[in-house]
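for the writeup, i need someone to sanity check this before i put it in the appendix. the sequnce is what the collaborator sent (i think, or maybe the updated version? ugh). structure was predicted straight from it, no edits. if anything looks off just tell me and ill rerun, i have time this weekend
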Amino acid sequence: MIRHRATQNQTNSKPPVKLKIGFLLAKNFTLNAFSLFVDTLRLGSDQGDNSGRIACDWSVMSSTNHFITSSSGVQVVPTTLLKPASDFTYLVVVGGRLNEDEVLDGEVLRYLKTAFESNVPIIGLCTGSFVLASAGLLKGKRACVSWLHHREFREKFPEISVSSHELFVEDGSVITCAGGSSAADLAAFLLNRHIGEYAERNALEILQISRRRDAKEMQTRNPLGRAADDKRVELALLIMEQHVEDLLEIEDIAAQTGLSRRQLERSFRARLGVSPSAAYLTMRLDSANRLVRTTSVSLSEVAVMTGFENSSHFIRKFRERFGSPPATVRKMLKLGNQAIQQPVSALTCAEDDY
């Protein structure tokens, strides 16, 4: 009888949860990054679409029971107050809009710092990397941010090495992720690491994602609006976009892609039909056009912000590309004429003088 009871208890016992996540949602957090991450966990935790928390479990934590509002206005209610950080495999900080003050309250920040000091692995999802950096948790580490926020991160945290080419970066006990769809890639990676390939496959197939992208795969971005179909050319374009103000030499850009200048020149001409210098100038002028149209920054400041040595050079190149000088574009916009001329082609800049 005793032997029978032991067998029965063993049969009814549940396997231990292998992956436990504690979410900390910032003020105006990014809903899609959070939902993609947690739903990937949900689908990888059970077979099919049963949503059983068999292999994974998660909690949305806060210092209060108040609703947390996302940047889209959708609200999430915390499922628990702060639990011991050691209860979790990872703590995930989901960032949000960058123009907010005190995105996490003081109690949550202290909790996060204590967890870091206790070597509990921490993930900064989307602009969660900014939260971790502000809390001092990225000192001496390499971080990952979206290409969209690369400039802001460099300006705010110049001492931290940052990549906006990759999807996510793991450095010691900290993982930072660009956000967007890469949240699903990171969650699937963790499923594979802690549960197994079958869990990752189940989640991705139900999500209609053909494969998990590797951490070092390039973020989706096409600054010139034309597909290059060459990873090294695409990387060079991303580097150019991140250095619109502080211009890099083409040799330096080529070196960062693993090519010589001559090889990069050939690749650009083969894939885009222009030189790297011409593509760089086009990108800078497009950035200048956005600043002229959407901000009140002075034209001399626009010139500096887009890497031009003087205003006359900037105005001449702007007129060549857009058909009108920047002052005319801004004046026409003030008069309500939104149909001011647009460039005829996406890549029309001269080869020289970038």
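The two ends are 87 Å apart (CA to CA). The chain has two domains: 9-206, 222-354.
thx in advance!!
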